[in-house]
Design a protein that fits this description.
It is built from five helices and 13 strands. The strands form four sheets. The chain has a four-stranded mixed β-sheet with strand order 2-3-6-4, sandwiched between helices. The protein has a four-stranded mixed β-sheet with strand order 8-11-12-13, with helices on both faces. It has a three-stranded mixed β-sheet with strand order 1-7-5. Strand 2 and strand 3 form a beta hairpin. It has one domain: 2-Layer Sandwich (Ribosomal Protein S5, domain 2). 29% of the residues lie in helices and 28% in strands. The longest helix is centred in the middle third of the chain and has 18 residues. Helix 2 crosses helix 3. With 227 residues, the chain is an alpha/beta fold.
Length: 227
């Protein structure tokens, strides 16, 4: 869930457009490697709408093996304590599922919107798998996004408001939304002819393949009602 004060909405929208434009150029690899990834959320209040924002990830692999070093920047925006906890859990669970060590990883996360706070756990799988991809020299494909959690047994856990999130992703010109295979059928509803590619997955490896387009996988075209 994303929350920002009304006075910052116009500035955040402009920043979102600029950040989206930079994302089209693809990830920038260096030392450390960096990537700007999309995340899906919903606004607070009675009339919720889906949102697409971006999070900046910086990844470095150190010489030592002293353990994961995870840093959350507090400006311009920030992550809530719950979001921080769920992201760290997801990184550890994803790495374990993929059979990779995190002992030499340094990860820094930032929210590039003044006044925005990211709440909840629905961004945790997207962040953790983006980090895992960077560690393997890969990158999340442009226009791909995942909404969900990572369970203790290495599966992608379902989250709510999927139709609103898919609708927002489509409006933002994203091309694929990866969701949990266990997303309730009631979340897959709509009757507009305009569609977006939605890929239900079960495991962390399957989700990573879907996000990085390697290898091709079976997808479902789901039409989502515009509100």
């Amino acid at each position: 869930m994303l929350r920002w004060s009304p006075s910052t909405q116009k500035r955040a929208c402009l920043a979102m457009l600029l950040l989206a434009a930079s994302l089209i150029e693809g990830p920038v690899f260096g030392a450390p490697r960096e990537q700007l990834i999309p995340i899906l959320g919903v606004t607070t209040g009675q009339n919720q709408i889906g949102t697409v924002s971006y999070v900046r990830i910086s990844f470095d692999e150190r010489q030592d093996q002293t353990g994961l070093m995870l840093h959350f920047r507090t400006t311009p925006g920030r992550f809530s304590h719950m979001a921080q906890t769920s992201i760290e859990q997801a990184i550890r669970r994803s790495a374990r599922s993929l059979g990779v060590s995190i002992d030499s990883w340094t990860v820094e996360l930032s929210v590039p919107y003044a006044g925005m706070t990211i709440y909840g756990d629905s961004v945790s799988a997207m962040v953790s798998l983006s980090v895992a991809a960077m560690a393997q020299g890969k990158a999340v494909s442009t226009g791909h996004v995942l909404t969900g959690t990572v369970t203790p047994d290495g599966e992608i856990g379902p989250v709510g408001s999927v139709p609103l999130k898919v609708q927002a992703a489509r409006a933002a010109k994203l091309r694929r939304v990866v969701v949990s295979k266990h997303t309730p059928a009631g979340e897959h509803a709509g009757n507009l002819p305009v569609s977006i590619q939605v890929s239900p997955v079960q495991s962390v490896p399957d989700a990573l393949d879907a996000l990085t387009d390697s290898p091709p996988m079976k997808s479902t075209i789901i039409e989502v009602e515009q509100r």
